[in-house]
């Protein structure tokens, strides 16, 4: 029996040290022991009995694979997440999603007001009593008044999620029991976000319609942009808050966009985004400050978004083919 025990110990050596694993190991050992005793009673020699038991239970690896576990799954000594910690992570992601969504909304609202106020200043409709330089600076000041609290929210959110940084980096494992729970709950969680996503998409489409309608009248085009940004801000808020729970589930399960392969792809895409979007922002600010084109230089963002989206899709397609 010592041989059988050592055999099991070797199989479970690199697996997560969880109660679920201990229970599974005990059950397998109990079944192997029963089979061994049965063979011994039938007159089989010890070595032959051990060989038969191990051969009959030699598909333990297949059982582990069905449970989403492999002997190397914990080879890097990653922490194993149990139910309580997972629920805490999911709850925190839900709460912080509102902070992130609010921050993004504040920035879009600030840009919307910037364009709106800059247009009014350009047409000499407001702040007539102020010097020209002060009038031109006020819309920008308003923008930064919205950016500052947004940045504070982002920093606060990052600080709150710091304790779960290892999850964001994918350096963890989950117990089989937790994986089964998450897998069974994910469909209902995903279903709950369908209506909010449809609402958000509808707002985005409607915002383009609003822009086109206002664009018919050249003098109102800038106001159309402001309204479009407000509608997009509302849509983004809905997207971020409604998908946060499903996103947390997928991160824990390492599936879809959080699978190891997709994570590697997203690192490259993220690196490109880290270059492209600051350049777009710089062009926006240069166009506004230097050339006083606040009412039109916003177009750099949708153009950048389209080009970047095309690059991301192309890159993923290439990697998938490989």
From TrEMBL:
Membrane-spanning intervals of the chain: 97-117, 137-156, 195-217, 223-247, 268-287, 293-315
Domain of life: Bacteria
UniProt keywords, alphabetically: Membrane, Transmembrane, Transmembrane helix
InterPro entries for the chain: Perm_prefix_1
Official protein name in the record: Uncharacterized protein
């Amino acid at each position: 029996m010592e041989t059988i025990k050592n055999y099991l110990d070797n199989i479970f050596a690199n697996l997560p040290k969880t109660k679920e694993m201990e229970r599974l190991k005990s059950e397998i050992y109990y079944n192997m022991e029963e089979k061994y005793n049965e063979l011994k009673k039938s007159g089989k020699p010890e070595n032959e009995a051990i060989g038969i038991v191990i051969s009959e239970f030699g598909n333990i690896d297949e059982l582990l694979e069905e449970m989403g576990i492999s002997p190397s799954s914990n080879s890097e000594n990653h922490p194993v997440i149990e139910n309580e910690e997972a629920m805490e992570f999911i709850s925190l992601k839900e709460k912080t999603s509102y902070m992130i969504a609010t921050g993004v909304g504040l920035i879009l609202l600030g840009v919307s007001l910037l364009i709106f106020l800059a247009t009014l200043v350009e047409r000499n409709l407001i702040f007539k009593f102020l010097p020209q330089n002060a009038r031109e600076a006020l819309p920008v000041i308003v923008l930064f008044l919205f950016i500052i609290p947004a940045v504070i929210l982002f920093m606060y959110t990052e600080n709150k999620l710091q304790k779960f940084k290892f999850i964001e980096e994918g350096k963890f494992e989950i117990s089989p029991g937790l994986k089964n729970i998450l897998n069974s709950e994910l469909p209902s969680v995903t279903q709950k976000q369908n209506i909010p996503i449809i609402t958000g998409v509808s707002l985005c489409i409607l915002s383009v319609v609003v822009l086109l309608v206002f664009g018919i009248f050249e003098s109102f085009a800038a106001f159309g942009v402001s309204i479009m940004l407000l509608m997009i801000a509302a849509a983004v808020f809905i997207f971020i808050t409604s998908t946060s729970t499903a996103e947390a589930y997928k991160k824990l399960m390492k599936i879809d966009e959080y699978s190891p392969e997709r994570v590697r792809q997203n690192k490259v895409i993220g690196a490109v985004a880290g270059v492209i979007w600051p350049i777009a922002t710089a062009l926006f600010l240069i166009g506004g400050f230097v050339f006083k084109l606040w009412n039109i230089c916003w177009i750099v963002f949708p153009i950048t978004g389209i080009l970047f989206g095309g690059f991301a899709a192309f890159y993923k397609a290439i990697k998938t083919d490989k």
